[in-house]
Amino acid sequence: MKQLLIITTNFMNKFGCILLLIFVYSCMDSFEELDIGVETLTYTGNNEMGKILFSKLQQNDIDDKFLELQKCSEILLDYTELSCTEKYGYIFSAPLKNKKTGIIESYLIFRTVNEADINPNNTKLDQSILIDQDFLNNLNGLELYLYSSRFLQYKNQGLEVSDKLCDFVNKWNNGELYTEYERINFAQNMEEYPYKVYIKFDIIYWVAPPLTAWALSQKTISDIFLKDAYETLCKKNPAIKWRARTDIKTNSAEIWFMVSDPTIDMKNAMWDYMNDISQNMRGRSFVSNVYWGMLIAGPFYHSTLGNGGSIPEYERPVIPEKPEEPCTDEKCPYCLKCVTPTSPNCLPCDCFGVELLLSDEEVALLNDYVLWARPKTPNGAYFPTLYFFEMAPANSGAWTPIYRGMEARLTRIATKPGEWDIRVRANIEDRQVFSEVLRVKELYPSYHDIVNNMQIQTQMTNLWTKTIQNTTESKRQELGCYIYIDAQEKTYKFEEFSGNEAGPDEHATIEVEYPSRESETCYFVGFFYTHTACTYLATGKKVGPSTQDIEATQLLGVVGIVYDYIGVSNPYGSGMMIMPGHSLDDPATYSHFGVYRRPLN
Whose C-alpha in 208, 219, 572, 597 is 20 to 30 A from the C-alpha of 399? Predict the structure, then answer.
């Protein structure tokens, strides 16, 4: 199981206490033993950690895996770094350069065994792990960011590094990637929320040489605290919004929590959050100070909670209550509540309202559905009401009126394919009220909608009759038509086309293309064509659409219909077959192929 380890430790020496942050990453199930041998490895550079690592590698036995790795890669000991953790002691890391391309495509982490002395020379190599693209593919989130950041560090040091290895960390630093808690309860405009709580974190993430820490961005720091906020506060109370930012110059992260509704117990919610986050911070030595403030009904409280290692206990301050002001809003004569409340302490009148009902949620074009407006009035009394039925593309808010009048019932014919939001607003007693927004889909007609239409049945019968009448001993011809819906005239329209005139020894074919007649008010929904008879042919054929027919309708994305003879059971295989020399008057019918209904997008 992969784990992200955030470990802090204090080292005491003659210079005092140094606060050290080390981010260590372990992939516990992925550590592989690499007892590394160095028969072909040499080092003459000046990197102190490189010298120490080289010395320790020489003490290990030859390992086949490392020898295989050395055939194509070169370990760059000049870029060796050392990190320290409480649990694993020292961790060496060094990049690997591809010998053919000269590009950094991986790096090695060498786990060590700690001795009592903190001198790195007194550690022993224990295990190592290869960090490459395959390793990164199994990570995500903050763990992927911190492993990838080492590649960006090598690139900033002048090494040529594969761009793909730095892609994730670059996107993260540029703000192109967001975590779950960054998208939840975000406040677009802070001015809309008069009740705010402000928290500031002073952050220490430097370390003393020669030790180095993993790369850490300001965005990464704020993410850590936002996750605390999301888990302990915003997730529990969606009414509490947040905004956050980090300051690179001052090494600080700031978070604001805010509400617009004074009835929300912001005080207790924030004290619960501060209790939770203070416990979480006790193990994070990179937090130097935490400042918090609360702005509720005017007074602003400011206090220092102390450093990350010893956050003191604190008492809840006494926040003076804001005196209630008398309400001067207009009162409803029926319920005596406020008609248009301006004070948060006022109760709004709910005597009047309107409910919207729909007969159907999905309707095919040219079919109708019913919208009902059900007004709400005091004691169910009758009031003259003006209704405005409106629709808008789903989630757009671009409302367009479809009816204005005194009728509470509207029958609408579906003419606009797509998903639509529908609402009704009503003017009752000089008040305007809105219904909830309902969703309806106006769909293209299905195969059954098309073939059950009398207008289309007549068109298909006429084309089949012409096909039979034009069949002679010397020629035959397939006929067809494109099927449209004219939304303005609320009817079906047709555009006929024909195939080649085929002789008795030729194939009768017909070409179907996407027609140019379609427009914003004329929709292409299907096509129909006929097959020819085998009356004057020496061979028969199978009944129904060919493979080419099916491929055509899949490409066009509309309903396909073919008119053909019913035929007889195929004596040579499965299915039905039209035998040569049959009568032109044999029974025939239409059948469907391709999509059942043109999709909305």
Answer: 597
